[in-house]
Specification:
Elements (H helix, E strand, L loop, with lengths): L10 E2 L12 H8 L5 E9 L11 E9 L9 E6 L4 H4 L7 H10 L8 H7 L12 H13 L4 E5 L2 H14 L8 E4 H15 L4 H10 L12 H7 L10 H21 L6 H17 L1
Parallel strand pairs: 1-6, 2-5, 5-6
Antiparallel strand pairs: 2-3, 3-4
Helix pairs in contact: 7-10, 7-11, 8-9, 9-10
Length: 286
Amino acid sequence: MKLNSFKSQYTDLIPSEKKSLKSSIKEIYEIIANPIRNYIFFDLETLGMHPNAETDQIIEIAASVCSSFDTNDTIATFHKKIKISKSSEMIFDKNNVMRDVWIKRNSKFNSDITPEHILSMTKYSNNLDHAISEEVGIQDFLNFISKFENPILVAHNAGYDVKFLSTRANKVNLKLENYDVIDTLKICRYFFIPLLTSRKEYSIEKQIYNKLLYKTPRRSLSSKLGNVADALGINSSCWHTANGDVEMLRYVMCYICDFFKSNIDADIKKYQSININRKANRKKVK
């Protein structure tokens, strides 16, 4: 998802699509295997895709902190459910015009989307006994991440989560500091999938490749977190819950980190170029 209306300050450590051609597997591995950094894996679940809209609030925040991508190395965890605000309650009233506004605003992401669908998908009704207000939840999370030295925020489609968090923080006079960020979606798209493609003649890699392959004329591979987890044999049953996504992401990235280490000198530029050209051709068709 893109948040076009807001600019937040953060340093993206993973190169963009075109710049990825200038980066090697070794360089990316060194970013995700830095022993002097604290990696803060985090995820938000949100009630809509537009953080500037009063109704499109955060409904869950989770994080797990580690000093490496090893899933056995957990320093601290964070998990908060957020109460539905008075403003957001309006979109659950089928007679309220704000519901129609919300559906129209968010339907470009999913034509069948409803507020109830989001709550069901994110399993929101589970464990609400200690739910807190969005303002308190954001403040608690900012306090949590500020405790760690040399932090790096890690998220799948990190631009969305970081910008959403920063925008909602600003609305309650809070500020997300300028952190280094690792976008694992970029790692999957621009490095893991090209490396996987370069080795698809091998048995294990071929199985993973086939599981990620869209069964359409596009012939492209999925980088969605749950799909990657399924292909790697990682439990994805809690996909779209903040706590579940954080745990799943850590296991996915632990696997990818080991995969990179085992193929540290692989040259994937040919396969990166194929992906970029395929995407450019799809845009031309559209």
